[in-house]
Amino acid sequence: MEQCLLNKQIILGVTGGIAAYKSADLVRRLRDAGAVVRVVMTENAKQFITPLTMQAVSGNPVHDDLFDLQAEAAMGHIELGKWADVILIAPASADCMARLLRGEANDLLTTLCLVTSAPIALAPAMNQGMWKNTATQENAQALRAKGIHIFGPGEGSQACGDTGYGRMLEPVELVDAVAALFQTGSLSGKRVIITAGPTHEAIDPVRFITNASSGKMGYAIAEAAIAAGAHVTLISGPVSIATPSHVIKMAVTTAQDMFDAVMSRIAECDIFFSVAAVGDYRCRTVATQKIAKTAASVTLELERNPDIVAGVGALVKRPFIVGFAAETENVLVNARKKLMNKKLDMIVANEVAVGMGGDDNAVTVLWGEQQVEFAKMAKQKLARKLIELVGDAIA
């Protein structure tokens, strides 16, 4: 399940309580699962564990002041709330739970919880008597009703000598609980093929024609599809990105290689994401030796490569097809033409200058008579939104 946390952006809120000593181990385990973690500490939390410790284990500066003038020059608390894929408060004290329920914003952590649109999860940790108290139980019930997830608490001996419910869940349990938040199941059991990255078309043994695609979008979609329960085959051109866990990867170089790989697997496919920036042309003749730099100019004769997504669209028995259109002008007009001409079910359109090669993208998704726009965001977040759209479309 931990593959669901790969590249997820997690704010770990730490409140005052002896269980704060477990938070350092929790950060380490979240990072081991591939998450990026930023820690927010309350003033009371710093009585139990130091910001320096949390900075060391997270690899990021600790946030502890709502009135950090340097951060607030750019409305730092707003940006941090938007950055998060999830806010996990562990340990969550009884006081923190009460303040969240009332919608207070008297420190950075509670302010972030009001700002964010990300899921919020609490791992309560307190004396067993405090947990059993009617006020705490009512607060917990009301927080659940507001959509806030509550993990635990567990039962056992406590630092004060009491025994009962109130212990913070162990870090490994919390990692699994957070990962489960990203397991949508919307593509459960579906067989998905994704193409990603550029292709390289040889000119001679040392030169080739390519483009600026990084492969990041295709790999992010592979991660999101795995988290949604799909069986994923990733057909990738040359990139320098680690292969996501539980993905079958086929490495290819040329457009013809990618076409052949897709066609060899497409009969077993339910959903096809054509994300790769495939070269439209290749050299008609590839030099067997390095072309010497002698003439003032060199002429290359190019011929068309096979159109992979159009080839899949032309099949009698075809999967649900999601195409991508990276355009420099008339983005929506050109994308709509591709949607119709290549017999796609859905197309994701963006400007080349916005998305190609970078970590973020802004797109418009077109299908049927519908369209939806997604503002610029991390490609991992965008991938999850696209998977949700596809899941709804095939439901």
Which key terms come to mind for this protein?
19 strands; elongated; 25% strand; 8-stranded mixed beta sheet; 395 residues; alpha/beta; Rossmann fold; 15 helices; 5-stranded parallel beta sheet
Write a concise synopsis of the structure shown:
With 395 residues, this protein is an alpha/beta fold. It has helices at 23-32, 51-58, 69-72, 76-83, 94-102, 108-115, 128-132, 134-145, 171-181, 216-227, 255-265, 308-313, 331-341, 352-355, 379-394, and strands spanning 9-14, 36-41, 86-92, 120-124, 149-150, 154-157, 163-167, 191-196, 201-204, 207-209, 231-236, 247-251, 271-274, 281-283, 302-304, 320-327, 346-351, 360-367, 370-378. It has 2 domains: 2-181, Flavin prenyltransferase-like (Rossmann fold); 191-394, CoaB-like (Rossmann fold, 3-Layer(aba) Sandwich).
Low-confidence stretches: none
- Output the structural class: alpha/beta
- In total, the number of strands is 19
Shape: elongated
The N- and C-terminal alpha carbons lie at a distance of 23 Å
Fill in the CATH topology of the largest domain: Rossmann fold
**What is the architecture of the largest domain at the second tier of CATH?**
3-Layer(aba) Sandwich
Backbone CA Rg: 25 Å
Strand content: 25-35%
Mean pLDDT rating: 91
> CATH class of the largest domain, please?
Alpha Beta
The helix tally amounts to 15
Describe this structure in words.
This protein folds into two domains: 2-181, Flavin prenyltransferase-like (Rossmann fold, 3-Layer(aba) Sandwich), CATH 3.40.50.1950; 191-394, Rossmann fold (3-Layer(aba) Sandwich). Helix 1 (23-32) links the parallel strand 1 (9-14) and strand 2. The protein is of the alpha/beta class. It has 15 helices and 19 strands. The strands form five sheets. Strands 12-11-8-13-16-17-18-19 form an eight-stranded mixed β-sheet, sandwiched between helices. Strands 2-1-3-4-5 form a five-stranded parallel β-sheet, sandwiched between helices. The mean pLDDT is 91.
